[in-house]
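Minutes, project check-in

Agenda point 3 was the complex the collaborators sent over. CS summarized: two entities, 647 residues total, and the question is how they sit relative to each other. Sequences were read into the notes so everyone works from the same version.
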Amino acid sequence: MSDGRLSVFKTYKLYVGGKFPRSESGRVYEVTDSKGAWLGHAPQSSRKDARDAVVAARKAFGGWSGATAYNRGQILYRVAEMLEGRREQFVREVADAEGLSKSKAAAVVDAAIDRWVWYAGWTDKIGQIVGGANPVAGPFLNLSTPEPTGVVTVLAPQESSFLGLVSVIAPVIATGNTAVVIASADAPLPALSLGEVLATSDLPGGVVNILSGRTAELAVPLASHQDVNAIDLTGAGGDAELAKELETAAADNLKRVLRPSASRRPAKGEQGEKGADRPQPVDKADWSADPGTHRLTAFLETKTVWHPTGALGASGSSY
Amino acid sequence: MPTTAPSPKRSAAFEQGGASFADATASDGALRRFLHGLPGVDAVGLEARAASLGTRSIKTTAKAYAIDLAISMIDLTTLEGADTPGKVRALAAKAVNPDPTDRTSPRTAAVCVYPDMAATAAAALAGSGVKVASVATAFPAGRAALDVKLADVRDAVAAGADEIDMVIDRGAFLSGRYLKVYEEILAVKAECGRARLKVIFETGELSTYDNIRRASWLGMLAGADFIKTSTGKVAVNATPANTLLMLEAVRDFREQTGVQIGVKPAGGIRTSKDAIKFLVLVNETAGEDWLDNHWFRFGASSLLNDLLMQRQKLSTGRYSGPDYVTVD
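CS then shared the predicted structure for the full assembly.
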């Protein structure tokens, strides 16, 4: 090099269980920018990496789902702080991955950081929105509270390598789920770098596990995996055949499935999952739009408790 | 002191090849000379050998065979202060029928409990072919008078234990009183009657590989039917290296005396991958004769669930999860 310094190439690695392993298979694949120029090599994960990621996610689930919502919010906000510190790196990676100009890439990264802050705020508020006291015809105090579904496999969007990625990961973990994320196959580098941010943000290891590689190769065993509780098919949006196959496999242990077409722009003023708006193909999804809460509520289970209050009228005294 | 032949069947074989061993146990001095005369262990070589055997790739039909073999070799163990008769019965039911969703899965070799639970286990396992193993001799520390230890063994045998897992007196062993350890094993063996005796060395407390080799020979000379690595109650339990060392000992012992002795690694083996590595060690060191639950056991509890999940994966093609096996 002209200044006499050797360039330091970065080895991109997976993020599984809080560690940065190479793929168990030892494989890597070439990642290029939008014009075909070489950017780096990413690990090409195998189904065994996927299996290991599920084990890590399951192990992390107890602690993460049991943490207070406030604490989860603090940690997610910390992620946003760490992202802010690495802003330049992400701007460069997003510009390369998506062929954007510096300024457009910067806008995308800013939106992604803001998205993270937005979801951090939701952690201790979603309970009030989708849970609460139910009026019942009997002497019961009846309460519904949302609980996380469990281990969620997330197929990250193929096109939006960073804003889209953040928009699918943050809502899953905000509510206390743990995630196994399959990064965009052609643009995995921002996702792998996000792993480095998550590792330094107080996020317990295993809460988010990031795999790069061929989407179908990883998604099929994960969709049929008996220890995965839900699957977000966003990243299979461009391949209806694959999405169908995955949904069929997911039915086997009654996984919750978020269909790719469910990614939609919420109607004006809409907050909840209700609303009769048109689904739109995910590849055209506008990730910069207001995301609404439907990605938060997609991976929640409602727990309802009936607490006896004693016979009506018997509780008060007559004097 | 004359060697008491542990059983009539065994003494014949003993006389042929192992006449010299009677001298070895004649006195404390002779026993020490014999044990310290054993070749020293090349620790680096041993660990390298164990590590290299751990890299074998066992797939498809071989893996299916290995998983079933490993299940059939498990001493399904519960050794907790909180053991209840209900827990022992549940464990016994699991030993007889490990995977309720797949009746083709083999039974485990035995259920391993404390002596006071042996009767419960024996009742629950009656007629199933699964053996009752009971720890005894003031397990796990072994710090009690010989009379107390022998009474412990008698209790377990009377309650129906088919196998007795005894601990050696590590304090005596480490202070060089080998004959005391030897005589204690002899005395316990005499109490066992028809029950097979497993001698636990607690390798994690023996400090060196040389000591593990000496303990192995001491146990075999005293009439152990099995030599077992550890109690599962200390920080370091069964490792591939110390199990390899014990497998070499039983192999050499059979070459010299014609008597075959079993090996049982216990504690710390939790995954199918680990278990299969141990089976590779057995096959490559002691040989195929030991690939049978009469001669090789795993002391484990959570290992069974992992083996069952792997078994389900092989039969269905889908990765299984902890929701599909019992919570022990």
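Noted in discussion: Confidence is low (pLDDT under 50) at residues 262-282 of chain A.
Follow-up: revisit at the next meeting once the mutant set is ready.
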